[in-house]
Design brief:
Blueprint (H helix, E strand, L loop, with lengths): L15 H32 L16 H30 L6 E8 L2 E5 L5 E3 L1 E5 L4 E7 L4 E5 L4 E5 L5 E5 L5 E7 L12 E6 L1 H9 L11 H11 L26 E3 L5 E3 L2 H9 L22 H11 L3
Parallel strand pairs: 1-5, 4-10
Antiparallel strand pairs: 1-2, 2-3, 5-8, 6-7, 6-9, 9-10, 11-12
The structure holds dinuclear copper ion.
Length: 313
């Protein structure tokens, strides 16, 4: 397809080429119809203009054939765009369960990354080639937007909840990260890079710790400590027995949960986060609203650590 005036960034993720193909399709169709229709309007307007005062004018009220064509054809074109769009969208919103999960913390004005083993980095996200990466993102102040043009992914990042995106890098090298939401004075300086490395280099990177640069415990280990320290253990068992609260055994594996009001909600990071901070917001079927709210008592890191721990059960 004719790549009009688009000069897209490198294609570094599995779907980059598909995204560009669809973008080109929509751009080409839009340009084609804009030029053709505007051209026809001007041409016909000039050709059939009233040339003198006494010229007879033909009054045409409608033309069923023409009207059908200009309704049906655009509808089909829009349907094609929509179908291709929804296929890509679904893929981009459904990370594989094998994805490596990395937490992203946005601050004015930097990006912090926390890897599964507890390794942390700032503004540089290191990921292995050919592995799906899922980012669990939250902001500590205003709204930011995490944007990796080469991976064709962009997602707003808010305070008080998690947003997600995922991608699978297919190219080694370094790629830009931008903040795509105006977030204050240093917004334009809120830049970073994704470094795509080999699996081996990635594993080396995770264990390469300078003194004091890594926590003693991995997020899941730190979460395990909190589980007892915050006395979650008094009501939430780990062996499947139901006491005052639902057991944590197989929590994330069970994928969804039935609430007291009959609705079924997916078990994801946002659900767990809300259930810790405002336990009464979504009451699990068969339990009483007795859990105290932990709002204001846990740091973002505590919450992320607890979630990391719950995923291991
Ligand atoms: Cu963060 Cu703009």
């Amino acid at each position: 397809m004719f790549d009009l005036f688009t000069s897209m960034p490198e294609q570094a993720a599995t779907w980059s080429a598909d995204v560009d193909w669809l973008n080109d399709l929509i751009t080409n169709l839009s340009v084609f119809f804009t030029v053709t229709l505007t051209g026809a309007m001007i041409y016909l307007g000039v050709k059939y203009r009233k040339k003198s005062e006494d010229q007879e004018v033909a009054y045409i009220t409608h033309n069923a054939m023409l009207e059908t064509v200009w309704t049906v054809v655009p509808t089909i074109i829009c349907a094609v765009m929509f179908v291709y769009g929804i296929i890509s969208y679904k893929e981009m919103r459904t990370p594989p369960s094998s994805a490596i999960e990395i937490n992203v913390d946005a601050y004015s004005w930097r990006w912090d990354f926390t890897y599964p083993g507890g390794k942390k980095s700032t503004n540089t996200l290191v990921v292995p080639l050919g592995q799906p990466i899922r980012l669990i993102m939250t902001s500590h102040d205003v709204i930011h937007s995490f944007f990796i043009p080469a991976m064709r992914v962009k997602e707003d990042v808010y305070q008080g909840n998690y947003s997600y995106l995922w991608f699978e890098p297919i190219k080694l090298g370094e790629f830009h990260i931008f903040c795509a939401e105006y977030c204050g004075l240093q917004h334009s300086a809120m830049i970073g890079k994704v470094k795509v490395v080999t699996q081996e280099e990635y594993e080396d990177y995770l264990v390469d710790r300078k003194a004091g640069d890594a926590p003693q415990l991995s997020p899941a280990e730190a979460g395990k400590v909190l589980y007892t320290e915050k006395t979650c253990n008094t009501c939430h068992s780990l062996d499947g027995s139901q006491t005052l609260g639902p057991s944590f055994k197989g929590l994330f594996a069970s994928k969804e949960r039935k609430l007291a009001d009959g609705t079924v909600v997916p078990i994801d990071e946002n659900y767990i986060r809300e259930s810790i901070l405002q336990p009464q917001a979504k009451m699990v079927e068969g339990f009483s609203p007795i859990m105290p709210a932990f709002e204001g008592q846990l740091s973002e890191e505590d919450i992320a650590n607890l979630i990391a721990y719950l995923k291991t059960l």
